[in-house]
Fold:
Amino acid sequence: MARSISHAHVQNIMLQISNNIIIADNEIEISAIRAQGAGGQNVNKVSSAIHLRFDIGASSLPDIYKERLLKLNDQRITTEGIIIIKAQQHRSQAKNREEALRRLREIVDSVAHLPRKRKPTKPTRSSQQKRLDSKTRLGQIKVMRGKIAD
Structure:
């Protein structure tokens, strides 16, 4: 994976997703950048924001995870299949790094669990009868609201 970083160095991190799935440190590209917005001198001088890039296609994730990740409708995943996360909530670079890694773990973890298949069920006979009885009763109430004929 090509690494191009302007004003920061890359830190090595292993990311444990589950018992048998670990994202290696060379698959996650982390660079420190200057945070946006107000913050005074700290923002102007210190590169405390973290820019994380993770290439889904080039990763060691199982193919089923890759497919599900690429199908996700998430604005953080580019059309090239790269997850880009920018963390700048905290003043310290270490906390922002933890936050970015936590968000990456959340994204990958979201595709790890398949939703259960829905088993179609039929309403019980008694529930159907209750529904029909209430319809009849409400219909009779509405008929009683009408004008009285002599």
About this structure: Helices lie at 41-45, 63-71, 93-110, 125-144.
